[in-house]
Amino acid sequence: MKKLPLMIGLLFIFNFIIKGLFLSHAPNSLSFQEVEILKLIHIIPSVDDFSFRFINVFIGSFIDTLLFYFIYKKTNNYYISLSIAISVGLSPWFAILSRYLNIYLIPIFLVVFILNIFPKKTYPLLIAVLSLIVFRYFIISQDLTSIRLTLLIPDLARLFDLQTIFFQGDTSSPMLRVPLTGFFYYLDLIAFFFGIGYLFIIDKNKELKMFINHILLLGVVFFLILPADLLMTQRGELIFLWIGIINGLGYYYFFNILKKKSFFLVYIFIFILFINLLFTAELFVNHFDKKNSSEWSYAERSTIQHLVSINKNRVYVSKSNQSDKLYRYLKFYNPKNIEYKKMEMADLKTICQSDQVICILNEGELSEFNIEKDDSKMQFGHYDGLPIYFIL
Amino acid sequence: MIAVFVILFLGFFLRFYRLSSIPNGPEWDEASIGYNAFSIAKTGFDEWGNKLPLIFPAFGDFKNPVYIYLSALVIKFIGLSIFSTRFINAFSGSLLIFIWYLIAKMSTKNEKISLLTAFFLAFSPFGIFFSRIAGDGIILSVFLISLGIMFELLYLERKKSVFFLVSVICLLLSIFTYNLARVISPALISLILLLNIKISQNKRIYISVLLIISLFTLLFLKQFGVNLKSRLQYVGIFGDEKGSVLQIRELREHDKNSLVSKITHNKLTVYLITFTSNYATYFSSQFLLGFNDNQLVYESHYPPLYIVTIFFFYLGIVIYIRELFKKLDPKDRAGKILLLALLFLAPIPATIAEGVSGKRSLALLGIMQFLSAYGLVFILNDLRDQRKKLIKIILTFLILVNIFHYLFFYFFTFPKKYNQFYASRENRICQFIKNNYQEYDYFVYSKKIDGFAYIFPLFCLSYPPDKYWQTHSYIQKDGWFTVNSFDKFIFPDEIGPDLINDIYNKKGKKIAIFLNEDENRKAPLNIKKIRLPIPSEAHNELYLYELKIL
User: Fold this and answer.
1) Nearest residue in chain A measured CA to CA from B310
2) Judgement on whether residues A188 and A73 belong to the same structural domain of the protein
3) Structure confidence by residue, pLDDT tens digits, A145-169
4) Same domain, A199 and A155
5) A16 touches B: beta carbon within 8 Å
6) A200 interface with B at CB cutoff 8 Å
7) CB A111 within 8 A of CB A67
8) Chains A, B: CB contacts under 8 A, how many?
């Protein structure tokens, strides 16, 4: 029993360190969703400050530790609990959700908490369903017409598609997608099959089975009630939680089989797993931003970073839709030494003559000033993309 | 026994019913195979005058010989037609049902699993679809592989050397039938040799087997070396301009070609990931539920498994693997290993090609149905009696609905929706040619309508090969053979003013010219015009001009 608090502590610290590593490096700009949340909780960081993301690092680490604890309570087996906690906690989809500010860890917490805290007679499954519905309606969107039933089966099938889960990830949206990576690691595919076999054939622990089956059921329900235009990671997160738990069980079973043959095989496989993890980490740290920079407002951040660093204190952008995003980021960061305004094109043409101001245009507006792209003072675009903002 | 014959009868019926018209045809490969088989039957030479070739150049795509030679036997008796061209695949696809019934029986000794396997295969979308087209000996190769496995299981049971020999011969023949067997059969043969070493009492049989393998290997190396390399380059995932290489370049550029990026992002790592990812596709819902429709000739446009059975397929895999860990008789264990080897080898030919391909993964046919049956019976045996009856009724209903949906799709929707992929335009021209051959002195249509147009008149007229060799004019371009003319038929690169001037020089002749919409716009002719309707949903209009040069 004494071992348990120590393991919980160590697991939490381990999670916190791993998830918090290079926090400002990847992703290295704010998504629009983060801006909206920060405004809601009244945190206005500087352009280079990402420390607010430790909120999600904390929540993610906490959820994983909670999962470990509850699985231990059901199985009384440290190895199974640790295997599941690590499998879920270090999986790419969960790690990314824990590294940027978002609300999508809340349903995971609710489900794990409710299913384990509420006694059977209070129908915890029903409570969990209701809490997910409340979350969906009051926090995500009150628009129920955004549920699209016609795409339900193909979309749901994709969530259980082996290639999508273990190799490709969400190809329809790059925002949370690490290149050459799925929602889980490649080797998790082996663990998944062993986990299914273990769960359906070998394991006799009814409590654990019921918990896992309930998560799957809640995952499908959550998927069905969410708006169809959300990202796959967000819609499928409870199903991914289920897959992560199955993987954890699978690793436990697989290592037990390997151990009986030879410990050397266990070490070899752990080494290969570690290589897989490092490979994915490299893809995330060095390539995630570059592939997804448009989704993470890289151009906007670069522009504002530049504005903050120079001495000009009046910035003007047009009232067009294309410049609106930059204006909203400016408004959010609200740099103290800069006065910024939206203006009509006619007024911009007059005011931009002055050297004391900075005018930022998008590509379509340059022609009104009879300026070519290369004649602008500076250009800012997404990584590997065309320039979007031009400073006159 | 009656049940299996009823299932077999239904399987035969579904594969032979309206074989000539569903799908429409022949399409290009069918016409080529049919005509080459006809040429062999008549003369012993292929369409290019090669005597009993080991590989058929055809269009330059080098077709495998076994299917063509077997079709030649059929065509010798009943003449050249779509039916005779498709017959071998339809027949082998039907027999495949019985082969897998026997395989399931020998592997499990369970009549329910065997009958269910046969039933699922008889009504299998892939089984029906690929049995009814003859483009390549796809299902014939699957049949030969399955036959090889069946004989090996017979050998394991009865220890008669002749079964071992026949098993190896079937697998070797499959290599010369369709390309997927080039990957699967050598691996299966190697496995069979390994498995049989312990069991075989007659070691001398190994000498015969190895001699046969050596002979086939020599034949294989002689005929397929160049062809194999060029095929990999244009269909494979390996190659300098393929997606994987472009991905490597992009990832390295992110990191400015640092040492870390060279170690982590290179052909070895990316090919390995791409290969494994592609491989996983064939066990994934995207493929098994058929949400990738490539709109190609050789795709069934329907999932390979019925939705109801997919869960049982997955369960069947897990339970079957688990069986290996139990105490088993060595011959039973060997049999299970062989079937699992087939399961895991089957997707590899499709994995190393680009895109998702039903035909290249067709070796899954049979084993998928067997494992689905295995999983289904396992679940039903696990249920209590009261629940069992209800579940059986529900499952039967769902499976029948699924089957009915597919049969309706295949026999009614499919011909209307996909006819355009089966050379409907070329066959419409052919029909006209066949009905009016004597009436015209020349038939002209350009390669803009079809790059391999020549094969259709050859096929539909059962044109004498010796006469064809005397009159044809062709060139070889980029590895492809293109015929410019033979007899009354002229196939220019395009129909323009120069050609029309040439045509006007053919005094006293009556000429039929077929133009597509674009050619018709550019070179309109002010003479009698007959609009040739296309009986499909294709939007490719054809214009037929009748010219009488005075």
Assistant:
1) A157
2) yes
3) 766 665 677 788 888 888 889 998 8
4) yes
5) no
6) yes
7) no
8) 69
Domain boundary at A258, A292, A326, which?
Answer: A292
Find chain A residues with C-beta within 8 A of B291's C-beta. Answer: 154, 157-158
CB within 8 Å: A157 and B322: no
B205 and B254 housed in the same domain = no
ipTM: 0.81
* CA-based nearest distance A357→chain B, Å: 34
| Shared domain check, A334 and A316 | yes
Residue B371: its chain A contacts at CB < 8 A?
none
Host domain of residue A270: 3-292
Q: How far is B264 from chain A (nearest CA, A)?
A: 7
Helix axis angle, A237-261 to A105-117, nearest 10°: 70
Distance in angstroms (rounded) separating the CA atoms of residues B530 and B125: 40
pLDDT in tens, B381-425: 877 677 788 888 899 999 999 999 999 999 998 888 887 778 888
Mutant choice from A150, A153, A155, A162 vs B, greatest count of B C-beta within 10 A: A162
Per-residue tokens: A90: 């270090």
The domain in which residue B176 lies consists of 2-235+282-417
Residues B407 and B428 in one domain: no
Which of B274, B292, B326 is a domain's end point?
A: B274
How does pLDDT run across A236-257, given as a tens digit for each residue?
Answer: 999 999 999 999 999 999 999 8
Spatial neighbors of A93 by CB under 8 A, at least 6 apart, are A176, A183, A184, A233, A237, A240
Chain A hits for B284, CB-CB cut-off 8 Å, are 161-164
Query: Do A61 and A185 lie in a common domain?
Result: yes
Are B395 and B308 a contacting pair, CB within 8 Å? yes
Q: Return the amino acid letter for A324.
A: D
Check residue B536 and give its pLDDT: 43
**In the beta sheet, which residues pair with residue A155?**
none
Residue whose structure tokens are 């007659």? B202
Give the three-state DSSP class for A51: helix
Q: Are residues B61 and B31 in the same domain?
A: yes
What confidence tens digit (pLDDT) does each residue in A320-339 have? 777 788 888 888 887 777 77
Q: Please tell me the distance in Å from B107's CA to the nearest CA on chain A.
A: 21
Using DSSP's 3-state secondary structure scheme, residue B550 falls into coil
